[in-house]
Structures are given as C-alpha cells and as structure tokens.
Model the fold of this input.
Amino acid sequence: MQDICPSTSKNSHIYVRTLHEACLRTGGEHKLAAYLGVPVADVEAWLNGTALPPDAIFLRCVDLVQMPRAR
Done:
C-alpha cells in the first residue's frame, strides 16, 4: 500500500503515529479531516507534530486504528 499521508513525523510521538495510521486507513488527510469533522489545516498540524489533537479526536483515531482492516 502506498503511503498517502503527508506526515513527516510518523515515527515520533504516539499521537502522530496514531493519526498517521488513521490517515492511511481513511485514504488521506482530507478524508481523515472529513471523518473527524475538522479543518484539514488542523489535521496537517497534528500530523506534523506542531499541535496536539483534542483528546476526543485522538480517541476517535485510536478507535479507527483498532478496527480490523477490510479485505
């Protein structure tokens, strides 16, 4: 699978790693932003590690990452 998430910090903080995986599972940062109901700029800041997502957003991403992948 091609990595379509623009995060350059995917190996750093657990928040960034989790958001990166959620980004991959939804199909990119725009789709992740739509899924979460937030602006793309917020997702970009969280993926780049320049801001931390609110706890509720992070937990939604954890739930998404924990779902089994469709085959």
User: Anything to note?
Assistant: Residues 23 and 31 are 8 Å apart (CA to CA). Residues 14-66 form one domain. The chain has a mean pLDDT of 86.
